[in-house]
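Incident log, structure service

09:12 report received: a user says their structure output differs between two submissions of the same chain.
09:20 pulled the input from the user's history:
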Amino acid sequence: MSQDTVVKRQFGHRARLALSPAEVLRTDGQAHAARTMWNLLHAWWQMMPKEKRTLGHADAAVRQARKDIDFLAVLPAQAAQAVLKTYFQAWKNCWEGRADAPNFKGRFRTVMSVDVPQGRDLNIVRVHRRWGMVNLPKVGRVRFRWTKDLPVGKRAGAENRITGARLVKDALGWHIAFRVQSVEVKPEPHQGPDVGIDVGITVPIARTYGTVVVEALTITNMVKSARGTIEEPGKNVAQKSGLNRSISGEAWGRTVTMLTYKTARLGGTLHKVPAPGTSQRCSACGFTTPGNRESQAVFVCKNPDCGWSGNADHNAARNVLHLYRMGLALIPAAGRAVVRRAKRVKPAAAR
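09:34 re-ran on a clean worker, output below:
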């Protein structure tokens, strides 16, 4: 197959690990050491002058810390290097406007995880229809639940292989997320119709279409607290808190990320359009007013010549699709600097 007919894909596959109590303790220790390494790196970054905040200086600091602090020795050397690369990538994402600046990680606020950057260290073998064996550095050979065929053994090759993994702990225990690289035949353009999606709480939408259009939402601003200050207390704080929990629970940002790569695998495309006004504009006549939306689920156009009524999320989805067909889809930015205004501090004499 030629390069024009194939495409390289990278995706993850998550499987449950079957660890003994002793193996759980060793894996927990590695996760705590990885979190400590991150915090030490962040403290080092804050103390170092800008000209010495380089990958080489940071690597030397990591190596010295592993020698001086016995607790960090439980973390494999490659996992420590993965923490270093992840930390520098976090700053790169911040400078390019994709994320906030990295910060210290708390013991009870951080998801426990350990990275295994080299796929060849895993030595994966299928031993049963439902179970496989994998090698975890400084933990040993452990079982994992086999729920999907992986490119191992005769299935593996230069283009189809496992490039690494990440151990993640949640309420159900430890899991392993394999990073899989594969080469697939480039899909034909999807012939399905276009669809607009309004991310709502009450009416979920899950379809397969050729072109998917979503709103470009700033989710971080949407879930900010309405508590306010002592001088200016907020209004409807309890209702806003409930909405924030619903938005966070639906994982809107992750949904769009997953939808982007899944539509691409099927030959479709995903576009974003400006979000303002899509919930208040009538999709039938274009009349816009806050009074059109009578409740969370009911939309009634107040235009005397229209009077269209229907589900509010359905109306917003039609507006989203209309913006795309009008050529108002947003072009992804290559990156922008994050500019924050410094807080003004009054002089000591004026206090």
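09:41 both user submissions now match this output. Likely a transient worker issue. Closing.
09:42 reviewer note: The helical segments are 21-47, 55-68, 77-95, 219-222, 237-250, 252-265, 312-325. The longest strand covers residues 6-18.
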